[in-house]
Amino acid sequence: MKFSGIAAAAILGAAAANALETISAVGNKFFLESGKQFFVKGIAYQLVEEDPLVDGEQCSRDAALMKTLGTNTIRVYHVDATKDHTKCMNAFADAGIYTLIDLDTFDTYILPTAPSWNQTQVDAYAAVMDAFIKYDNVLGFFVGNEIIAIANQSLAAPYIKASVRDMKKHRESKGYRKVPIGYSAADIAELRPMLQDYLTCGGDDSQNVDFFALNSYEWCDVTTYDVSGYANLQKQAVNFPVPIFFSETGCNVPGPRLFDDQQAIFGKEMSSDWSGAIIYEWIEEANHYGLISYGPPVAPTATGSNIRGGFSRAGTPTPVSPDFNNLKSQWAKITPSGVAQSDYSPSLVSTRACPTSTQDGWLVNGNVALPSIGQVFTGALSTVPIATPTTTTTSALGSAATTSTTKNPAPANKEIAGMSAGLAGVMLFFTFWL
């Protein structure tokens, strides 16, 4: 069969975007189509707030350097569903790099103090999924990032679960491949164990996350697995029913960053239960978490399409020394063996008990009814019968026995829409669902 030059180019472009094996979540692990277990070695990638995946030349430069680092995944916090992302997605696919995409937009983020889940949000989330589902190097979608950041915000959890439910409905109604859908949580000791259990409890996988991810900055050099708090995180991940991984990590106190935690995450201590880590972040900014820079800082008042906040956000990426090479050295030593999918028989589906409310912050009592689209939140949550799973496994430490010390809080100026509004005040609602 003969093809015109234009048709051939279009086909080649589509093939480039689909050059990698797709990834699925099975039990608490990720697997490639070939059956090999996949571990995330990722970088948080958000050069500009609105969408870093529209400049194909910039993506090509960054992807090439990421490949030398050993990166196989990037996380992108916000995208514009109306833009063409093919060149960037091709560039990362050519470098063997998968993507994790946040579905929320700047005006559809679920706010923690006044949560809502309405048709506008559903449509916006679905538009992002529609725009990216065609790319085989999409590893997964996040329905939210650190929506619950302090104790009184836990009443937003049913809205997170409702967004998972409706994005899964959209995925199924369109006949899309089952790209995993999950959530990225803040590392809050009084909330973390309950939230991860809540998002995977109740026996109904149609509304449970396909993976759970954690933004944690507990391991600050120089420390150890036990002192850092990672030992507690590991205890809470044992027999978890879905993949769990770090969606942000890389404490920079006191600096330079040594990334010693990577040996624990990918080593014998944690690799049987954890699926890897994403390092925060690619670009150097005022918070000094960057692995690369596009040039020296400029005056905060400087203007230009590629200058924001006193830093250039495009150009030739230059490694930040010694952090870049320190991470490269750590990842070069990582060889998690994993397990072949053919040898893996998970029995972990919906095994977590729905947590009860606690005095120190978790306010959702059991398996509450989820809000329907457009249902107004008024505070008190009614419970529904909990489906009986095949087996029952409660949180390893229980809801109140968890303690950890976060030595360095998460970076303050992450590109996360909605958080400033969500943290402006703490509002509790104590009536009923309408």
UniProtKB/TrEMBL annotation:
Database matches in Pfam families: Glyco_hydro_72
Ranges of biased composition (kind: Low complexity): 392-406
Region Disordered, annotated ranges: 392-412
GO terms assigned for molecular function: 1,3-beta-glucanosyltransferase activity
Main location as per UniProt: membrane
Function: Splits internally a 1,3-beta-glucan molecule and transfers the newly generated reducing end (the donor) to the non-reducing end of another 1,3-beta-glucan molecule (the acceptor) forming a 1,3-beta linkage, resulting in the elongation of 1,3-beta-glucan chains in the cell wall.
Entry protein name: 1,3-beta-glucanosyltransferase
Protein species of origin: Lasiosphaeria ovina
